[in-house]
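Practice problem: predict the structure.
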Amino acid sequence: MRSQSVLVRRYIWLMSTIYDAGRISYEDIEKKWLRSSLNDEKKPFPLRTFHDHISAIQELFDVNIVCDRSYGYKYYIENADVLDLDSVCLWMLNSFSVSNAIAGAKDIRDRILIQDIPSSRRWLAPILSAIREKQVIEIDYLSFQKGEVPARKLCPFYVKLYDNRWYMFAREPENPKMKVYALDRIKALRTLDEEFTFEPTSADRESIDKCFGHCIYEDIPPRVIRIKATKSASYYLDTLPLHKSQRIHEVGEDYVIYEYEFAPTTEFQATLRKWGNQLEICKE
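Answer:
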């Protein structure tokens, strides 16, 4: 029997193959499978196994793979907008696809250079479990500004990956104010036999969505910001937006003006400086 991790990698491979192709026949999928690095023994992809995988993908990822019989029996993702709109699902697909590619390149592992993301392996899983089960956690924390802080109980609401670091947004049981904690500064974490019943408010989520980076400042409200980018810079921003609210406001011959809505924090100012004269804030 295949291990669960092997099966999940196969599900991701199949979902990624169909997503990238748009529409693809079972015969072409099997040809790709015979060349896949996941298929070390070069075994065929039985039709029954193929349909079992499709059912598992629907159950695990809520992604519907269907066959268009009027178009040469081509398979496609019926609800591809789930991947386009659900940033977590798309991130999972991208992450697993990268993991699959690297797993199949063991012979050239010394040629693959990656940057480690601090803390994600140790603390992310118990925090996600606490969010799901609404369990109170207690952490020992080292602040870069204050040093070691006393152990504190927290009710975790959200986690966010930003600039290769994971952050947790949480509140204390007796204090409704949500604060942010970097996972790589947590020195110890204990899941307590205590539950909390309250949910994050819509204002909590909005404050995260409309902050730039990971910090939330009550004295810096979100506002509409327009940034003029050089043509060369726009190519980068189109593929990796500065913020999720990014949209194109105006296109010129040698520039593009983008419009955003977020709180212009110090992180935003630092990001702007990195771009030098390629980006400038439009005067209101």
